[in-house]
Design goal:
- The protein is of the alpha/beta class.
- It has two domains: about 130 residues, Glycogen Phosphorylase B (Rossmann fold, 3-Layer(aba) Sandwich), CATH 3.40.50.2000; about 180 residues, Rossmann fold (3-Layer(aba) Sandwich), CATH 3.40.50.2000.
- About 35% of the residues lie in helices and about 15% in strands.
- The protein is built from 13 helices and eleven strands.
- The strands form two sheets. Strands 8-7-6-9-10-11 form a six-stranded parallel beta sheet, sandwiched between helices. It has a five-stranded parallel beta sheet with strand order 3-2-1-4-5, sandwiched between helices.
- Helix 8 crosses helix 9.
- It is globular, with a radius of gyration of 21 Å.
């Protein structure tokens, strides 16, 4: 039974980061809006990630955590607003501190820490066979609100400005006119999740030679590596890493026939935009809950079984910290792409 009258609802959803996790809360936001169309729905996130939700029609308001807006000031505003339902979808030290500063009825979800640790450290799969993906685990925090997943993918809603800019930029560089285009996201936050650079170069060169354009996407810190990947495609490939924000980068991915990515935020952007994804996975296994969620795509996975590797903190990967990823051949990725090109 609901713990508060289900009228005049003011719902606060807290998820500070990162790209993939924030997009994976959108199925819950959609379910809340459909179940309670007149509710007031606020999301608290870091300012950096606001563009992921800025044009989402399910959200009434976005609160930002930034250098100019401290956790203490946010807590004061939360206390004053008197939310009827407060959902902690992060479950870290910062969100627990927020719950202390703005006390009341908070609800969270299980992060399956014991099962995750057992799989990483002991190579023992303790996850139940019916363990849901992360997007559906978030619904545990809203158990009192009587909402269920609808089976649709995550959502990344783009502004007209972002779409127009992407169209203009691609046309200006002579891409995606008469040739198909593939978005490439070559870098990840962790080297252990990265496909080898030589494989990316081979893939982009092969795409160019076979009549397919490439646009390489990534953050500013990845710009140098992304530029090297783009150069492998000559005039038929270009990098926007560090040039575009999340909205405009999303618009480029939305224009692509497919996206090739590792376990990155870009992968979740692709699934949330309806762009088919070829996802390359090594140390991140399906039980962790971060595979592409209910969207067109192919997962090429190289993980278990293998022995622990010190460079991965004991996670599975033999003979070098990204051997598993190296075993995914560029030709295998190219074959997976063919169905959309």
């Amino acid at each position: 039974m609901p713990y508060a009258p289900l009228r005049n609802l003011r719902i606060l959803v807290v998820r500070f980061s990162s790209i993939g996790d924030i997009l994976l809360i959108t199925p819950l936001l959609r379910a809340l809006r459909r179940r309670y169309p007149d509710c007031h729905l606020t999301v608290l996130t870091k300012r950096t990630f606001r563009p992921l939700l800025s044009d989402n029609p399910r959200v009434d308001r976005i609160l930002e955590l930034s250098n100019g807006n401290s956790l203490r000031s946010l807590a004061r505003e939360i206390r004053q607003t008197k939310y009827t339902h407060k959902l902690d979808l992060h479950g870290n030290l910062r969100s627990r501190l927020l719950r202390t500063l703005a006390p009341g009825d908070w609800f969270g979800y299980s992060k399956r820490r014991i099962a995750r640790t057992a799989l990483i450290r002991l190579k023992r799969d303790a996850y139940p066979p019916d363990t849901p993906p992360t997007a559906e685990r978030f619904f545990e925090a809203a158990r009192a609100l009587d909402v269920t997943p609808d089976g649709a993918p995550a959502e990344f809603c783009l502004s007209d400005e972002a779409r127009s800019h992407a169209d203009h930029w691609l046309a200006m560089h002579g891409l995606a006119t008469e040739r198909p285009i593939v978005a490439i996201a070559p870098r990840t936050a962790h080297e252990t999740k990265s496909w080898p650079m030589s494989h990316w170069l081979t893939l982009v060169q092969d795409l160019a030679e076979s009549g397919v354009d490439s646009v390489v996407v990534g953050g500013a810190e990845e710009a140098a590596a992304c530029q090297i990947v783009a150069e492998a495609g000559g005039a038929r490939a270009i990098s926007v890493a560090g040039l575009f924000g999340l909205q405009r980068a999303g618009a480029v991915i939305a224009r692509a026939q497919a996206l090739v990515s590792g376990d990155t935020g870009a992968m979740h952007m692709g699934t949330a935009l309806g762009t088919p994804v070829v996802a390359l996975f090594g140390p991140t296994v399906q039980q962790f809950g971060f595979f592409p969620y209910n969207a067109p795509g192919v997962v090429l996975e190289r993980s278990l079984p293998c022995r622990p590797c010190s460079k991965m903190g004991g996670a599975h990967c033999p003979l070098g910290h990204h051997r598993c990823m190296r075993d995914i051949a560029p030709g295998e990725v190219r074959s997976a792409l063919d169905q959309w090109l």
